[in-house]
Amino acid sequence: HAKHLGGSCFQFYSAELPARNTDRLRLENELRKAIAEGQLQIHYQPKLHLASGTIGSAEALVRWQHPTRGMLLPGEFITIAEETGLILTLGEQVLRLACVQASQWLHKGPMAVRVAVNMSVQQLRQPQLATQVEDVLRTTGLPASLLELELTESMLLEHSDTVEANIAALQKLGVELSVDDFGTGYSSLAYLKRFPIHSLKIDRTFINELDEQPRDAAIVRAIIAMAHSMNLRVVAEGVEQQSQLSFLRNQGCDEVQGFLISKPVSASAFTRLLESRLYSSATEAP
Ligand code: C2E
Ligand code: MG
Ligand code: MG
Ligand code: MG
């Protein structure tokens, strides 16, 4: 009987857990509603092509216009979306919205811009992913070459037949693939020779302290050299300072992305950015 005194522990936790669970449950239900009712929006952040001064692509970053809490960033809801499986419908919606927008830029102007969409590992594990992407491209009228998918290193190390088949099928469609947050995942580079990757995005943790940390500079230099010798494009993310931009330019980095160039902005603000001719697009209309 005395053993059941351990039940007091249960008492302690049960006082805490329900509150947290109801918070999570509320967030989950709100997110489900948000996806169904179109509260999700996409902001776009340019990747600037340094050699030409043109916009190489626009990264689509999801935002949630919450009815009472204002604009929420992915950090506040992507984890719950992953945990509840809602990431699949969220991801498909983001893909569709981004392709609709890129198709408008292509067909209505001001110009063709490639759009880069972040993928969740759960999307890559769906056997029908390539069919879904193909359908989105067909219904939005966007050429596959104007869609780029950002994957992370861990996704490329899954060793799953479905993931490998998806990557091969996406490559066959003509979609571009890039490795996001490069350098932070795993030390394995083996996937670079197995998969049809087009570009590497150096993680912003290597860019942050480029001026103060000689080792960061060495890593960035090495990534650029390796990528170029493999005919991959290199993008640096999180560029905030002119000194970082100069270093990257000197090292031959192809594209830069970060607050120094532009924060992520609404579709209409991005359209104005394109119209301003401050940056013209790097992508010829196909
Ligand atoms: P990410 O793909 O690595 O995107 C870059 C993040 O860094 C974005 O944050 C962007 O706003 C931020 N950023 C860009 N330039 C700078 C800079 O100069 N300095 C600093 N400090 N930050 C900068 P955001 O929009 O909050 O997105 C965070 C992450 O959420 C993304 O990281 C991506 O992993 C994920 N995410 C965003 N949208 C989606 C989506 O539609 N689907 C999925 N699965 N994940 C998404
Ligand atoms: Mg990304
Ligand atoms: Mg990134
Ligand atoms: Mg990142």
TrEMBL record:
Residues 24-278 form the EAL domain. This is cyclic-guanylate-specific phosphodiesterase. The lineage of its organism: Bacteria, Pseudomonadati, Pseudomonadota, Gammaproteobacteria, Pseudomonadales. The chain holds residues 656 to 941 of 941 of the full protein.
